[in-house]
Structure formats: structure tokens, C-alpha cells
Specification:
There is one protein chain. This protein is of the alpha+beta class. It has three domains: about 100 residues, Orthogonal Bundle (Butyryl-Coa Dehydrogenase, subunit A, domain 1), CATH 1.10.540; about 110 residues, Beta Barrel (Butyryl-CoA Dehydrogenase, subunit A, domain 2), CATH 2.40.110; about 160 residues, Butyryl-CoA Dehydrogenase, subunit A, domain 3, CATH 1.20.140.10. Helix content is about 45%, strand content about 15%. Strands 2, 3, 4, 7 and 8 form a five-stranded antiparallel β-sheet that branches. The chain has a four-stranded mixed β-sheet with strand order 1-5-6-9. Helix 1 runs parallel beside helix 4, helix 4 runs antiparallel to helix 5 and helix 11 runs antiparallel to helix 12. The longest helix is centred in the C-terminal third of the chain and has 28 residues. The chain starts with about 25 loop residues before the first helix and ends with a helix. The relative contact order is 0.11.
Length: about 425
């Protein structure tokens, strides 16, 4: 397999016939994730230095078949559900928060592509069933998406694209003008653009946390995106509809976007918090104070362990409730979508609070770069600040629905 130069360079993909890959079961996928997690743990500090995921980590995701976990079987995927995304993602994020963040996004982006027109699916998976897709929901000021005959003309910068160094495509949200007096776009589209048509801005991800996600900006200059490589976000968000459902009619590919997609990032934050707790707990078992006492025998440490572990169990149960809801097949209306989204934010908040409690109880030695506790804390704090988990915004929308008040125009379209 040919690999391009540089620690964060894109790999030459293995051109594997999709009939050669046996379909994984949920249990097999989780076991493979646990095995890979051992290797990822060994690269914990390397990831931070690289400012992206090591090429070996991405290669292992592919070789284990995990990138295909939620991809339709008709393209060589395993067509597993959000329970598999959650359980495999927790295992990866326990080993390294940033690796978990990139992993869950790679998996969920293949689920998202299944909603696109069959021609788009064929263009991506027909050439390479192990293709990696990054995403950006952040169209920077001054960037534009203009409708033209047969598609859209795209110019500008799109931000926060996790895992972009290793990706063959970017999925970019585009707000299509003209805009009305309230700033509502004529269309909201999500476009798939190949690697040859954008430039990674490598200096744009200089952060104090989640460095290993490599969430860099990209520049797209005068690129034509054909209509079949874009999807209308409004019916996707409201009803889980997309042209790909004509060939992927299964329940897995029928969910409103924001009722389902946040399972991925919520999983990454939860898995990281569990990994943080377990690393702290195991370290305390042999830790001695400066006066020679066993720290694990301190009553306040025992109480902290009970409280933190209970908070994380509550967070996991709430995420599981959301995941189970997606498997019922019952329609999800706007009120319930917002309840589900609120739940994702509550999970992230619990994880952030639990992580602060752990760090506060870790002692001054936790601030050393060699100590993994400080990176768990930084990455979890950063992840919980993602817009997906903004409880003020989500709480306002949910509260309006609870009180029978109308949503704002844009929220009504895309929530």
C-alpha cells in the first residue's frame, strides 16, 4: 500500500473489492475496537505532537473494517446501528479522546453519505469503499455558495474539519443566497467535495486542547459542485429524508439529521470521560502521599470516586436512551428531536463536570505534560464546548416547545 510522505499525509487507499470484506457483527466490531484501542493508547503523546491522528491509527480503523460500520451493505459496509457507533466509539475515546473524536466522525460521515443520491454514493464508494470523509458545518464569513446551472459554485473558507488530513472528501454545509431580511438562506445544502478540489490550511489548528483531532480549516476556490453531490438539509433535518433513501430504505437511514448525528460526538466525550476516570482511579490505587499515606485510603477520594462514577453511569444511561429511541422506528417530531438534542447536551455537561472533579482531585502532578490526566481534562472540556452541546441554545428551543411557543425561523428549518 502506497503512503504519501509526512505524518499527517493522506494514505493511498487499498483498492479492495467490497465482496472481500465479511460483514461484521456488533460484537465483533466492539472487540476490534478494544484491540485497536491498545495501540492507540501507546500513541497518546505522539498524537498531541503531530497535531492530527497518526497515519497508523487511521490505517487500523480501515483494516479492522470499522470505518465501514454504518455504511450500507450494498457498498460493502456492515450496516450496523448507532449502538455499534456508541460502543466502539467509547472504547477508542477511552484510549485517546482525540482519536475517539476523529473515529466517530469517520464512521458517522459514511452513514450520512447514504442519504445522498445514488450517483454520489457510487462516485465515492464505487472508487474506494474505504474512503474517509471529513466535514465542516462552519462556512466562514465572506465565503459563498452560488447556485449555477447543474449545481453550485463554491468559494471561501470552511472551518473546524476534524480528521481532514486523512480524508478523501469534505462534506461542507453551504448557505445559499440570496438571504432574506432575517438572514435566512434560499437553500441550506450539504456538499461533498473531493480532496483534489480544496486546500488544507495547516496553520489554522493551533490550540490548547483536542490537538489530535487536527480540526483544520480548508479553502475552496471556484469549485463547481454538481447537484447530485449536494443534499437539501431542510427535509433531512426535519424528516430524515434524502434522495439516497430510494436505494437505502432501511430504518438506519431514515433519521432526522440532528436527532441522530450527535450520537457520535456525545460518544466521544463520554468515552473520554470514562477513560479519564479509569486512568485516575487506577493511578490512585498505588499512589502515596508525601507523608507516606495511601491516597486511596483517604475518605474524600473514595467519595469522589463514588460521585464521579455515578455521574458517568447516569450520562451513559441517558445516551443509551437516545440510541434506543432511534431503533424503534416511531416518527420523531420537532418537540422530541429537541428533547433528544437536549439529552446529548446534558450528557456532555455531566462529563465535563465529572472531569473537573477528577482533575481537581488529582494533585499538582497532574499538570505535567507527561501526565495523561491533563490531556484528558483539556480534550473533554474542549469537546463539551462544541455547538452540539450548547445547552443555552438547545434549552431555549426545548423550553419554547414545552411552553407552546414558536421557534425562530432558522431553528424551525434546521433543528
Amino acid at each position: 500500500m502506497k503512503i504519501t510522505k509526512g505524518p499527517c499525509g493522506r494514505e493511498g487507499m487499498r483498492r479492495m473489492d467490497r465482496t472481500m470484506l465479511t460483514h461484521l457483527t456488533h460484537e465483533e466490531a466492539v472487540e476490534r475496537a478494544k484491540k485497536i484501542a491498545q495501540n492507540i493508547k501507546a500513541r497518546f503523546h505522539e498524537t498531541e505532537k503531530l497535531n492530527c491522528q497518526p497515519a497508523e491509527t487511521i490505517r487500523e480503523f480501515k483494516e479492522a473494517g470499522l470505518v465501514r460500520a454504518m455504511m450500507p451493505k450494498r457498498w460493502g459496509g456492515h450496516q450496523l446501528g448507532f449502538d455499534t457507533l456508541m460502543r466502539t466509539g467509547i472504547e477508542i475515546a477511552k484510549a485517546d479522546p482525540s482519536a475517539g473524536w476523529v473515529y466517530v466522525l469517520l464512521v458517522v460521515h459514511n452513514w450520512m453519505l447514504a442519504y445522498y443520491a445514488e450517483e454520489a454514493q457510487r462516485e465515492v464508494w464505487g472508487q474506494n469503499p474505504d474512503a474517509c470523509l471529513a466535514s465542516s458545518f462552519n462556512q466562514m464569513p465572506g465565503s459563498e455558495v452560488v447556485p449555477v446551472e447543474g449545481g453550485y459554485r463554491v468559494n471561501g473558507v470552511w472551518g473546524y474539519s476534524s480528521g481532514i488530513d486523512h480524508s478523501d472528501y469534505i462534506m461542507a454545509q453551504g448557505n445559499v443566497g440570496p438571504f432574506d431580511e432575517d438572514g435566512i438562506a434560499s437553500e441550506y445544502v450539504f456538499m461533498v467535495i473531493p480532496r483534489s478540489q480544496f486546500t488544507i490550511l495547516h496553520d489554522s489548528w493551533d490550540t490548547s486542547a483536542q490537538r489530535g483531532t487536527g480540526s483544520k480549516n480548508v479553502r475552496i476556490d471556484n469549485v463547481f459542485v454538481p447537484k447530485h453531490m449536494a443534499i437539501d438539509m431542510v427535509p433531512w433535518c426535519q424528516r430524515g429524508e434524502g434522495p439516497g433513501r430510494a436505494v437505502n430504505p432501511e430504518l438506519l437511514y431514515s433519521h432526522p439529521l440532528y436527532a441522530a448525528m450527535p450520537v457520535c460526538l456525545t460518544t466521544a466525550v463520554l468515552g473520554a470521560a470514562i477513560g479519564f476516570y479509569e486512568t485516575w482511579r487506577d493511578g490512585l490505587k498505588s499512589k502515596m502521599s508525601l507523608r507516606g499515606a495511601r491516597v486511596a485510603e483517604f475518605t474524600h477520594m473514595q467519595i469522589r470516586a463514588a460521585e464521579v462514577e455515578g455521574m458517568l453511569e447516569a450520562a451513559e444511561a441517558l445516551l443509551e436512551k437516545n440510541v434506543r429511541r432511534l431503533s424503534t422506528g416511531e416518527p420523531i417530531d420537532t418537540h422530541e428531536r429537541l428533547r433528544i438534542r437536549r439529552n446529548f447536551a446534558i450528557v456532555a455537561k455531566l462529563c465535563s463536570q465529572a472531569s473537573k472533579m477528577i482533575f481537581d482531585a488529582s494533585g499538582a502532578g497532574a499538570v505535567y505534560h507527561a501526565n495523561p490526566l491533563q490531556r484528558y481534562w483539556r480534550d473533554i472540556q474542549c469537546g463539551s464546548m462544541h455547538l452540539t452541546f450548547n445547552l443555552d441554545w438547545l434549552g431555549e428551543m426545548f423550553g419554547k416547545m414545552e411552553f407552546g411557543l414558536p421557534l425562530g425561523k432558522k431553528d424551525a428549518l434546521l433543528s
